[in-house]
Amino acid sequence: MQNIIKDGLVFADDWQVLRPDAAGLLPEVDASAAVIVPWAHWRLEVESWRQRRSPVAVWLAPSDEPLELLPYLNLFTLVAIDFPSFTDGRGYSLARLLRERYNYAGELRALGDVWQDQLQALWQVGFDSFEIKQGKPLEASVRGLGSFSEHYQSNARQPLPLFRRSIT
């Protein structure tokens, strides 16, 4: 069980992220487990995953095209986006597309090499939950989410820039 940050609080999370091994195979998991599978695997076995009785979510790699997910988007209460390295920012664009262009309203989770330094920007593009990199402090990361009380630019959460809003 992994601890995650969701809606600004630390939670124990039952979702199991399935990652392919060197041969490209997913690990075996209990049939009752809630799983987050790679989009590339899910789309190859759509019916198999849809017939599973336990919850199934997908995670997108930085190179995945979110438009391909669109016909199935309403099936998922959770979509995760993988950050394979701290310096790979393509996940920000994927999140913004899912929220603003494709109107995804479910939980959007950042996973992989996610650090406290990224949380504020990830939250602005629409992420609700964060799986912080192993070994990084969760409580400090939660405090980091509240670092800024206001943002100048528009974002997925606030479509109007500060100069268009009346702040009292």
Structure overview:
With 168 residues, this protein is an alpha/beta fold. It has a single domain (2-164), classed as TIM Barrel, CATH 3.20.20. Helices cover 23% and strands 21% of the residues. An 8-stranded mixed beta sheet has the order 2-1-8-7-6-5-4-3. A hairpin with a 2-residue loop joins β1 and β2 (9-13). The radius of gyration is 16 Å and the shape is globular. The termini are far apart.
Name a few traits of the molecule.
TIM Barrel; 5 helices; eight-stranded mixed sheet; 168 residues
Topology:
Layout: E1 2-6, E2 9-13, E3 16-17, E4 35-38, H1 39-44, H2 46-51, E5 56-60, E6 78-83, H3 90-101, E7 107-112, H4 119-124, E8 129-130, H5 138-145
Parallel strand pairs: 3-4, 4-5, 5-6, 6-7, 7-8
Antiparallel strand pairs: 1-2, 1-8
